[in-house]
Amino acid sequence: MRLRHSKVASLRLPGAALAISVTLAVMSCAMPASRNASSMAADTLAPLRREDADWLERVSFGLDSAMVADYRRLGRERYLEQQLRESAGELPPAVAAQIQELNAYQAAPERRLQQLQERRKSINAMADGPGKEQARKQLNDEAGQFAYRAIRLELLQAVYSPAQLREQMVWFWLNHFSVFQYKADLRWLVLDYEEQAIRPYALGRFRDLVLATLEHPAMLQYLDNTQNAAGHINENYARELMELHTLGVSGGYSQPDVQQLARVLTGVGVHAGPAPHLKPELRELYVRRGAFEFNPARHDFGPKVLLGHPVSGRGFAEVEHAITLIVQQKACARFVSRELATYFLGDAPSARLVDAMAETFQQSDGDIAATLRTLLMSREFAAARVPKFKDPMHYVLSSVRLAYDGRSISNCHPLLDWLNALGEAPFGRQTPDGYPLGASSWESPGQMSRRFEIARAIGAGNVHLFDHEDGTAATMTGFPQLSNRLYYEAIEPFLSANTRTALSQANSPQEWNTFLLASPEMNYE
Amino acid sequence: MSERVTRRRCLQLLLAGGAGAWARLYAAPVSGPRFLLVFLRGGYDASNMLIPYSSMFYYEARPTIAIARPDPAASSGALTLDSNWALAPALRDSIGVLYQQRQIAFVPFAGTPDLSRSHFETQDSIELGEPLTGAHDYRSGFLGRLHTVLTGANAGGVTAIAFTDALPLSFRGPEPIPNVSLRSVGKPPFDDRQVRILSAMYSGHPLEPAVTGGLELRRQVAQAMQQLSDEMRTSSRDALSIKGFELEAERMARLMRDSYRIGFVDVGGWDTHVNEGAAQGALASNLAGLGRGLTLFAQSLGAEWKNTVVVVLSEFGRTFRENGNRGTDHGHGSVYWVLGGSVSGGRIAGEQQPLERANLFQDRDYPVLNDYRAILGGLFRSMWGLTSGQCAQVFPQTTPTRLDLV
Questions:
Q1: Dihedral angle over CA of B91, B92, B94, B95, nearest 10
Q2: pLDDT digits (tens, 9 = 90+) for A229-253
Q3: With bands split at pLDDT 50, 70 and 90, how would you rate the model's confidence at B386?
């Protein structure tokens, strides 16, 4: 959280703020107190330093009490090391239970696709009529429920995981290796994609991450590599693999390189069911991992030259060699570093910072955690003077983290509705470029007025967040307590005069919440 | 950089007009060309809208869903348009009237070279409006580029709006374009006092124009809709009798008459794989609602209808033959509609072929003889007098077609 007008920020209106907080304490008793809400201004710790609050905001989906306490206990360096090592504490039990339940829906994509084929076959065999229509609709509804489970898994972990930096990276990579749920069978596959191809590698080695996405049916279906075969080249995945995933549009590759990589990728596809019948000499080259398949009968075995180097190996070994060649390019280190710096710092990171990160990336063999350490401990990051406008995901999640501070929601539909309204739903980007990283794409008039409406929905207490997922109504009513200890510790000290004036004009605690969540301070990190 | 452009423009407007500057962006000059794109999502069955009644093969290929040949003596059933084509009975009283007034033309064999036959892919590739081969620029859609070109060329700017819940791909671009769904329009969420407080919180902030503009847009839409329903009440028209697309169309006309030059709306429900119906049925009632809505749109624009062009299109056509479920599957070529008060209509435009089996594409679909980029590029060129450089900005690597429709 950062202000643009530091001179006026020192103006304070303590009378107004206190008066309203007393009102709040009286009026918000309908909502069960969160673990910190009962402590008011009087018993807060010394406020966080501005630079620490800013730093924490940027490495997370917004402040909550638990992370502020961890940070105070550990200090920046140890806190960061803990975040980079993923040993960052546990989820609230009610959220952990939901996640466990959702993970039970993970079935190997192979089984999932097989079941899907069988069900489609039996529907096609049905006599025409309402029964058949009904069966089609049922299957379609189930696909929607599946994709929604993947979205719940993503949102719940992003809001509640103490491993906030890892969750930052999961969202970053989901967007970097973006897939769209409504293409092909993707609604059945995105849960597995998120949990098996992205999350385990979010802080690992970049090459492993690229290969995990390359071997995932969701990516192969989304970018049409399932249709890429010797004699029937489909360049779609080959092009985006270099342009969007690794080298960047000006990363020094040419159209012939795209064509060469497309040939390398022939035979890389998806298959559920018994292995195809192959000639004896090809059998040992057949690769099958779950629903991922490398089928040598569809592969172009001719010699290839990629980025000036001959591609060595035979069969799938060629693909692994090509990916190694690509991720070792200086252009790849620079592209990934620039994307990361833009994500964490906002538009136009300095060339010096990107160079330093790219050097770490190359020297560490594409170690994502090491590259992040260079970024997050850099002077430029610590002293960032230009506030970064939050994308919708960060805006919605940070508002909920502040409003409910660790208290578990039980229904993600309101979150998804808000993200849809702001144009950034998970797995909702049609085109493979992912949602834009730069602030400029989100600063439209429509965006701002919708954010204010969401601020009001959260500030006035959206009880549907506490509905059960099966649709039974919430047992909880009331509105959240935003002027809590966390607020006095890490937000109130840095509010601008304009925001203080607005807060002092609130007629009710709900309206006070709305104004705070609508403020510039809550829209920037 | 887009951000700079936007901010600079906001700043200029701020300097020129004070705090309500964004609002000024929404107030278009009174007269001038207007364009509305109606996207029928799902791939509508063009062969049961524009009926190739002279084709024997049409009746062979559609044993249960073909629409009967027009009877010139009858006042119902398909309406004869020329010696080859007739209009679906469901559109007789709406679009049929516009056709007789020469305010609508149809372009059969229209579409895209995209052969994926996937709804999403084909919709996306149409909305991006780029050549299919080579690298793609996902940052802009063709209406976004048209908006940029026109904004650069017109001092006052040309305002655009999408009447949708989410900004469509076609409007992606460097300049932010607002979107608002008109299916249900509520009261503005904040009262005047709250609007003042929220705006004041951003006073002097770089986002101030976006904030005041966003709040103003909501207020403006709510106010326009309130006026509309008041007018309908006083003219003793029963507002409740209008619903669905008609209601949306009337609301769109109000906003386009008063404030916007480029509009976009999508209409769903066209993916008729099963029980499509013929003269009556699922497709017919969807077409009837669309036709009534467009007629109401034309009427509600009043004098501005003569400056307005509406194009109705869909991502692809459907199979020429019916399938085993009395429906049709994803096909290729489609029929586009071009209508407006000054459109030289009452005709079937563009390249055509007799509809015989030998002429079907892949022995199943209408071929595409009229590329959508060439058709739209030609329209935009005539409407706004675009140079060939500007046309190429909107639709790269395309030669606009001259169909003399406007």
A1: 70
A2: 999 988 989 999 999 999 998 899 9
A3: very high
pLDDT band for position B153 (cuts 50, 70, 90)? low
Is B197 in contact with A443 (Cβ distance < 8 A)? no
**The dihedral of CA B143, B149, B152, B153: what is its sign?**
negative
Nearest to A452 by CA among B169, B176, B213, B168: B213
Walk me through the domains of chain B, giving residue ranges and CATH numbers: 31-183+244-394 (3.40.720)
Nearest in space to B10 (alpha carbons), one of B20, B22, B23, B24: B22
**Measuring CA to CA, which residue among A183, A282, A278, A190 is closest to residue A226?**
A183
ipTM computed for the complex: 0.88
Decide if A504 contacts A488 (C-beta within 8 A). no
Contact indicator for A422, A392 with CB cutoff of 8 Å: yes
Inter-chain residue contact B3 with A443, CB threshold 8 Å:
yes
DSSP result, B302-339: GGGGGGEEEEEEES--B-SS--TTSS--B-S-EEEEEE
pLDDT number for residue B285:
94
Cα-to-chain-centroid distance, residue A230:
35
State the Cα angle at B27 between B390 and B199, rounded to 5°: 115
* DSSP state for residue A387 in the 8-state scheme: P
The token duo for B238 is 């029963």
Q: What number of C-beta contacts closer than 8 Å exist between A and B?
A: 122
Contact A503, A509 (CB under 8 A): no
Beta carbons within 8 Å of A26's beta carbon, 6+ residues apart: none
Rounded Cα distance, A401 and A392, in Å: 14
Q: How far is Cα B65 from Cα A104, in angstroms, rounded to an integer?
A: 46
User: Which residues are paired to B179 by β-bridges?
Assistant: B162
Chain A residue numbers with beta carbons less than 8 Å from the beta carbon of B213 are 445, 448
Give residue B157's pLDDT. Answer: 65
CA distances (Å), origin A80, targets A58, A59, A62, A219, A346: 12, 9, 16, 31, 20
